Amino acid sequence: MRGSGMSFNSLRVKLTAAILVFSVLLVSLQWVLHLSAVKVVREQVAKSNQKLLSLHMRGLDADLEELDRYLYDLSVSNVDVQRLDRMRAANELEYDMARLRLFNTLKHSIENYRNTDILFVYSGQNDDVLLVGRSDFGNTYEERSQMRSEILFMLDSGLQKPIAPEWQIWRSESGKYYVYRLVKTGSTYLGAWVRADKLVQPLDLQDDGDRGFALLATLDLEPMQHADQVALDSIALNYEANTFRMSGDDSSYLVLGERSEKGAFHLVAVIPESAILQHLLYLKRLTYVVTIGACIFPLMLAWYLRKVFLLPILRIVSAMRRLSDGNWKTRLELGAVSDEFRLMNHTFNRMIEEIRHLKIDVYEEKLNHQKAELKQLQLQINPHFFLNSLNIIYNLATVRDYAIIQEMTKCLVAYFRFIFQSDAFYVLLRDELAHTRNYLRIQQLRFPQRLTFRIDVDDDALNCPIPPLVIQNVVENSIKHAFNLDDMLDIRIRVSAAGTGSERRLLVRIADNGPGFPPEVLDLLRQDRDLVQDEGGRIGIWNLRRRLRLLYPSGYRLTFENGAEGGAVVTMELAIGNEGGTKHVSHLAG
């Protein structure tokens, strides 16, 4: 690969790839170990907290079940509950005494149930409610009044529905959540009421933002506590049973939970990953150190290998590329390099010097051969044209047409002077066109009233260099293959210059009105195949191509086609830069 590209098979790429692969493997191994440790710790933390949740949930369900039995027993066996089911107006004193005894019973019993705040009895017959709270609940009158209002509102709306067989959730207008239970006997309802916050307080991770938090969630997994933090960190509470899942922004929270068997709620634990990984801080730091080291080490190793190993090789490669571009003055410095590279550089310089001398000798010999070949090509004369011209002069002398003899002789002298006197590889376009015009006049004298021609040329192109005889060769080929004594042959030559500077080009177009190229000949010409026959036919086109290849090694354009209205069309595009510039240009005068 040349230029600014880089080969994937180069030493630099292979060494860099090897270093990167080693570093990536090292970092990958370290991270695999780190992630494995993180996975193990996550599983251990999840297992430990799952046990804690299960233990707490079993205890909570046991307390709720015990409260269920108490409410059922009270509804069945307590006669005062049955008296409240009667109309108060029938025996108001008996109703009030039963209500007082029931109050004392509930007051005494509620202290035995830690997971309840209020026990209450509601008489549907008398629309009367009896509430009894724990001693540690309702420290202020406002709190007790608010709780009474919530229970009355719950009874007012909840009694319209069938009584659920499990503990239910109540959400107040202020957004607080409560857990309650109702047991019906006749038209009387017994119930227990507790704040949802109270049910999760015994957990160790409660209200510890760094270690995590526990919360109760509805059956739809709406959080009853820590709702703001759950929403802020986009934590999804849809846990998987007996396992854990990562949730939240960047999956930075471990979520696990358990469904209550006695209530319509879930107990969910949310633990930050930072709390899980705090015991892996040393391993995490070691992983970062190894990662940073794996990033720095390849750079240092690459710098060392580049200085000691790659740079000397790259200098040799660069020198070889300059040599391939033709710069044979390239040499390698014998600087501060290893002994092996010093020997290689010295041997390289000596070898290049020997090759340079050999190449110069071969090049000079090739130039001499090309010059000789060009001269030979330029001096090729069509013997039939020469003999036919002499035969015409002889016939004209027989009829004593001396004016035409003089003009024919003058044209032939100019024709052969141009051929024999030009030792240059290029002539001015004006001289080439003058020679072509002279050649066409000779043909007109040979075939009167059978040949016409026209030459159009831009003035700024007249002094442009062009190889001698290139236009005349094409014109001669047209006359040879398109001329007949029955039809008038018309030849049109158009020459112009285009472009500027090193991009300047000479455009030559030669067209006739003959039958054009036969299809098989046109195919061979377009395939750039030689048309030289055994008897020497079509030597002109071969001569033209050969000379253009020698004089324009960087390329030229020579096209053959048939015109839209018939006839053959030959187009040449030649450079007017260094290849076709004024070097070796001859101007023929007279």
Automatic annotation (TrEMBL):
The chain crosses the membrane at residues 286-305. SUPFAM superfamilies: ATPase domain of HSP90 chaperone/DNA topoisomerase II/histidine kinase, HAMP domain-like. One of its GO terms (molecular function) is phosphorelay sensor kinase activity. Residues 307-360 form the HAMP domain. It comes from the Bacteria. One of its GO terms (cellular component) is plasma membrane. This is HAMP domain-containing protein,histidine kinase. It comes from Thermobacillus composti (strain DSM 18247 / JCM 13945 / KWC4).
